[in-house]
Amino acid sequence: MKIAIGQFDVRLGDIESICSRIKEQSRLAITHDAKLLCVPAPLFCGVAPGLLIDNRNFEHDVMRSLLELASCFSGDELTILVPFVVSIDGAPLFDVILLKEGRVIPSRLFSMHQREGSALDIWAPPIFEVGGLRVAVSFDAQRDLPLLPQGCDVLVYFQASSFNQDDCSTAGVSGLIEGSLCKAVRDRGIWLAAVCPVGSFDESVYTGGSYFLDESARLISAAPSFEEALLIQDVVRGTLLPEVAISDDFRFNKEEWLWNALQIYLRDSLSSYGSRRVVVELDGSLASSLLAVLAVDSIGSRNVIGLLVERDDAIAPEQVEKESLRRRLVRELSASLHIRLVTRSAGFLTESFDRDRSYPNAARSENLAVSVILEDLADEYGAVILSPLTKTDYSLPGKRVDRYRFASLAPFGDVFLTDLEFVARYRNRVSEVLPSSLVSLSEVEAAMSRVLYDAIHGRVEDRDRAAHAAEIFYKLDASQVDDVLRAAVDQGRVFEEIGLARSDEDAVALLLLMMRAGEVDRRRMAPYPIVSSRSFSERAWPSQLAWSDMGRDGQESLSADGFALDEIHRFEKKGEQFGRRMREEIAGLIGGMLGISPEQLRSMMEGGQEGQRADADDLDTAVQGMPGQIGNHASKGSEQAHLEGIPTPRGMHPSDFPFFSIN
Length: 663
Description:
Blueprint: E1 2-7, H1 15-31, E2 34-38, H2 56-72, E3 79-88, E4 91-100, E5 103-106, H3 107-114, H4 119-122, E6 127-130, E7 133-138, H5 141-144, E8 154-158, H6 181-188, E9 191-195, E10 198-201, E11 204-207, E12 211-213, E13 219-222, E14 229-234, H7 254-273, E15 278-281, H8 286-299, E16 304-310, H9 317-337, E17 340-345, H10 347-353, H11 361-381, E18 384-385, H12 391-395, H13 417-430, H14 441-459, H15 463-474, H16 478-489, H17 505-517, H18 519-523, H19 560-594, H20 598-606, H21 609-644, H22 658-662
């Protein structure tokens, strides 16, 4: 049986366009005798639909459109699988809608109702038969493969997790080389059809690269990455088909995949703004220059407008020379990229904002002036403003936030500053468009110095404290700063788990403090694509939070769970003590009956384990014979008392003892 995978990009939630593309792909699949067509997961509502799925009219529009689509192919032997997020008691659940014979069948909801809504059945992979094959559906192949029942022929895996530059398994077929999915497929012995989306859906980016693995986990066919495609494969069990060699085109390269993912994000995001033009301020830095190259690669040079803001505050000869070099670099880059360059002077606007030319007032005035110029230029050309700020800037926001207050997108907002050097080196290997002086460690160090300086003067008003903070940061290089930020944000590590904390606690504490203080400013900064393990969107802390991670100062880590376990241990210890006291009391009572001295009892209870077991056996034998002995003693005593005319006293029978009567 032939299975088709439609790898295509449509604007998120555009129901009419999505159904139109599915119809187009279905007709192509039918011409190739395919019996099953699978479309990507995030098309209708993305992977984080929020309250959208609770809107009954949205669900109505989707179901109505799918019913119309199903009716178009009611006479064909084609089943279409459409992932869709449904709401189960207010919680989102990925379901798979089957369009078959003119019907719309939500497979998971159908199974849930059929099996009386068992909570366990909701998460079980739906299984159905198509063209003589038993097909299972999963959104987590690694988890579901071992759980599939016997008799399944193929698992259709819909990728839901978006691209993460630190996890090659999110890069479609390119992640097979280092991933563990192949082993799981080989162990289970069934075919795998991986449906990998391509495109940007809100802040999530997908790279494509759908593929088929046979039951031996051999790559049989694959779609290209970062492109739309219709992949059709004949799934034949027990037949050795030609294997596709994993060439360099399939091998995961972090910088290459990141660059292409950012292009997809920029292209798709601009469509939602209704514009194809962007404005980029070119200030001679690596970030702004690389952003201009990204824009040209994404939408073409004719749609990119560069802005050069000429500074008129250079007084010293070295300042004049530096400003001249900056202007020359910007003009050379604009010429090599063939983009329009607009030159403006911020002098008169700076003076109108603030007549005090001392820093930080001068820097604030310049940033506000540039923001006005960018906004005016965007209005003139009907363009969108791009921000060159990186994840390092987002971690330590300073006065430069005002410079890009009107920016709509920040493509590097989830990429650390030190990573830009390697991305730029990759881009220059494709074609050398960036000056070699920018693609260097010295440029990264200079950019990091500007970020730290701007963050300090934007947060610390007292000059002495600002000078002390600058002195702490002066010892750090750019990679150390980003390593601390990466550990705290991406990896979620606490103070003691950050490597630099072992040698420079003050620097780590100050970086974390400034990062926490920047929470309010981050809320005002431009949106960005999520391309890391954890972005600031996922790591957001309360904006009014006054606490910052300053470490434990050598103290043991305390936790609520630890206190709960301590209380459990206390109860267990108290129970053991209570049990030991009860055993001693019972043993003493029995010893008194049997004539065993306290020293003998203590020896029996405090001896070694083997001696304790032997003594316990002796004591058990003695206890078993005790009722008879007591009875004999009681009868003899009674007879003697009867002969002597003495009445039998109470307490000589076991039932007369208080212990036995109570227990």
